[in-house]
Amino acid sequence: MTATGRRLRADAERSVQAILEAAERVLKEDPAATLEQIAEAAGVARTTVHRRFANRDALLAALAESAWRQIAGAVEGARPATAPPLVALHQATANILAIKSGWTFALGQPATNEEIGRLQQAVYAACDEVFRRAQQAGDIRAGVDLAWARQVYLALINETAHGPTGGGEPDAAAARILDVLFHGIG
């Protein structure tokens, strides 16, 4: 899609995707990399990058938005409102871990536009819904502060994805996260 909401041609969509993927790789290695370096890594002309993104800030916003769109889709795919809470939580966790490792730089960027903020809020709201449902089902004690539980859960995901041991296989890592979240380490 363009900034005006028009759909891009298939070849233009591929170029944008190649630029975003290259930007993630290049910027993860060198956050000060230029648009020219990103164009080279994407295998496109510098003018193609400038035609698709008005400036570096626009590219960074598109990068973060693309990553958050994938996270939101992964969470939605776990059926947080209808699947049994622990099943939805496990699936969402595995889905997020599979995405997070590929978008380290993008997901570390602040929300710079309304769409990124909306996507983040949708992800957090789905998480809160699953936690509420898990508490109603008795999987989380009645007195637990669910906002705090979400913070702990997100910290576990982040540490798993970016910590020194790496995430490993997403399904096994999700099981490990939920085991620590629900049973502690004691």
TrEMBL record:
One matching Pfam family: TetR_N
Signal peptide (from-to): none
Domain HTH tetR-type per the UniProt entry, residue ranges: 13-71
Sorted UniProt keywords: DNA-binding, Transcription, Transcription regulation
Gene3D superfamilies: Tetracycline Repressor, domain 2
DNA-binding region listed in the record: 34-53
Stored PROSITE patterns: HTH_TETR_2 (PS50977)
PANTHER family reported in the protein's UniProt record: HTH-TYPE TRANSCRIPTIONAL REGULATOR BETI, HTH-TYPE TRANSCRIPTIONAL REGULATOR RUTR
Protein name: TetR/AcrR family transcriptional regulator
